[in-house]
Amino acid sequence: MTLPVLPGVLIRVYPCESVIEVYALFALLGSQKIPGDKNRGSGRILPPMKTIAYLRLVLAVMLLPASGALAQPASANAPAVETLPASSPYGEATVKRNIPYVSHPTTNQNFDLYLPRNPGVRPFPLVIWIHGGAWMMGSKEWDNVKYLVRRGYAIASIDYRFSPEAPFPAQIQDCNAALNFILAHAADYGVDARRFVVGGGSAGGHLALLLGLARQEREFGANPAVKPLAILDFFGPTDLNGMTADLQAIHSRKGIELWQDAGPKLLGVPLDQAAAQAKAASPITYVSAAAPPVLILQGDEDDLVPVAQSQRLHVALNRAGVDNELIMVHDAGHDGPMFSTPRIQPGIIDFLNGIFKSAGSP
């Protein structure tokens, strides 16, 4: 590739930083003062005719790696496949990281896909997992059911836009976009587009409930023709209009402070003006007889999402005739290793095995 050098080109390389600035001064006919960098002092005079040969060499050396990168085939940008050892929390598995699910993704609009190292049983049943973090932080590494990969399930763990960047319904719109993308490419990934469940923890449990219950809400990006086989709700908020009263009832100062911070950021308005927005963002609003089965896990010492939130959902599902189970984890607070202990895992595995058995073979 030919890289012509114009008179008056200034290359500034800042050591210890990955920044290279190139200023092309197209009108230069002779020496001219070059504007200074506001962070690095005033400009200086570069006599271009004396430095042309040097600049040609510097440009060629510096831009050669970039030109090579531009020449790479499109497949070079495909997510790399990483192999996880049997000793990993997922067991022996492969993972593809940071797969975008929209055309022009922001930093968080991607997912990681974990597949068991057992190609003989493809397509794998799929768990779409949504992490927590009060809707304003978190990581798709926060996965409470990693052990399911050892049991033959694929996991797609998704990220989504946080509330400081975009208030509700951006989060559930991203979850639906991820769901639609994954199912559209299920054959490529080796997962079963008909045999999947959704789940999440804390704020992710709230979003998983919305993803499974609010299937008629096109504003959320939902496709009514798509329905998960079940929902895994790990200590997710279910009734946002009731959060303040529930936290006050258990005298949780920490929970109240967190909700007073996270709630307005999520809903886009102060809490005392958010009744309509909170109802629209509450999973309990969308409970109906058409809902899939729901497994609820709740710590009985949770001071961030009170027990009353899960109990209220449990009652609403019962009234609607929806199969559901509420598992109380004794002496457990909000999240933590107690939700994936050998004592807890069998209940989740049995629930899922029953769901997928009822759904039949792929």
Descriptive account of the structure:
- The chain is an alpha/beta fold.
- It folds into two domains: 9-75, no CATH class; 79-359, Alpha/Beta hydrolase fold, catalytic domain (Rossmann fold).
- The protein is built from nine helices and 13 strands.
- The protein has helices at residues 48-70, 170-184, 186-189, 203-213, 243-249, 253-267, 275-280, 307-320, 345-359; strands at 9-13, 20-24, 32-33, 45-46, 81-84, 93-100, 110-116, 124-130, 154-158, 191-201, 231-234, 294-299, 324-329.
- Strands 5-6-7-9-8-10-11-12-13 form a nine-stranded mixed sheet, with helices on both faces.
- A hairpin with a 6-residue loop joins strand 1 (9-13) and strand 2 (20-24).
- Helix 2 crosses helix 4 and helix 5 packs antiparallel against helix 6.
- The longest helix has 23 residues, at 48-70.
- It is globular, with a radius of gyration of 26 Å.
- The chain starts with 8 loop residues before the first strand and ends with a helix.
- 38% of the residues are buried.
Q: Short summary of the structure?
A:
This protein has 362 residues and is α/β, with parallel strands linked by helices. It is built from 9 helices and 13 strands.
